[in-house]
Amino acid sequence: MDLYGVMGNPIEHSRSPKIHALFAEQTRQDITYEKIFVPINGFKEAVEQFKQRGGKGLNVTLPFKQDAFDLADSTSEFAKQAGAVNTLTINPSGEIVGENTDGIGLVRDLLVNQKIKIQDKAILLIGAGGAARGVIGPLLKQQPTLLHVTNRTEEKAHELKFLFHQFGSISSSGLSDIPNIKFDIVINATSASLNQNIPAISPTLISPHCFFYDMVYGNELTLFLQWVKGLGAQHYVDGKGMLLEQAAESFFIWRGVRPNTALIKDKVFE
Ligand code: ATR
């Protein structure tokens, strides 16, 4: 049996072991997948121990995605753009390859599950932290007409624009001076909901034709989605699909088979 796992701190509530167990069952892959709690300064050591045990691959979650990027011997283009790694593959030679499947997960959820076109659409991305940075490269690769990044701390939005302008059409602003464009897709990549807040964007941006995506999820409709729904939004979805698709992409990298996420979604979030 090949050994995989997820490392984080905290890790108790991670759904990754369940998701990967269901993927393995579905695709008849003989793997075990562990939940591994790692002390804040112990990431490198934990990976080394995992490697000594013959581990073949790791998912990496908060707060270690940058440590994973630094530790990897080589990294994919999307990982470099994100400055973060959520998937490590330990090759037979011992080489550690780092990739980032978060943005691919979001894009696949939009394109495949939600049937939302990204090419030639105008996207508003709210937030400029790690979650936002991780999805910009894969979104721009789909060639939207524009990706506008807006953030409470305006400077961080401009930094992302500077970092990514070579990859596509990107602009930036603070939350109060978002250009008056008819956005097709609005993505909330802030952590505002963790503090029971919503980002202070103008309600005039909420239009019924627009598709709203919240990268976080919960048992109930997220605060942000409740807000847009109350303002008349008709198309909205939370981040459960993104979670499943980023996991599926990791599984595909490791095992070479792509699991069907739709078949397991209800079981994961039951
Ligand atoms: P993550 O890795 O989850 O993106 P992060 O790097 O701490 O976490 O970034 C959190 C993001 O949520 C930031 O864009 C933050 O805005 P600031 O850069 O101004 O801090 C945003 N955020 C958090 N709480 C928010 C709130 N109440 N309103 C608007 N944006 C908020």
How would you describe what is shown here?
This protein has helices at residues 16-27, 43-52, 65-71, 77-82, 102-113, 130-141, 154-164, 223-230, 240-255, 265-268, and strands spanning 2-8, 31-37, 57-60, 74-75, 87-90, 96-99, 122-126, 146-151, 170-174, 185-188, 211-214, 235-237. It has a six-stranded mixed β-sheet with strand order 2-1-3-5-6-4, sandwiched between helices. The protein has a six-stranded parallel β-sheet with strand order 9-8-7-10-11-12, sandwiched between helices. The protein is globular. It has two domains: 2-100, Leucine Dehydrogenase, chain A, domain 1 (Rossmann fold); 103-241, NAD(P)-binding Rossmann-like Domain (Rossmann fold). Helix content is 36%, strand content 20%. The protein has 270 residues and is α/β, with parallel strands linked by helices. β11 (211-214), α8 (223-230) and β12 form a beta-alpha-beta unit. The mean pLDDT is 97. α1 (16-27) crosses α9 (240-255) and α5 crosses α6 (130-141). Bound molecules: 2'-monophosphoadenosine-5'-diphosphate. 2'-monophosphoadenosine-5'-diphosphate is lined by residues 127-132, 151-153, 156, 190-192, 195, 197, 199.
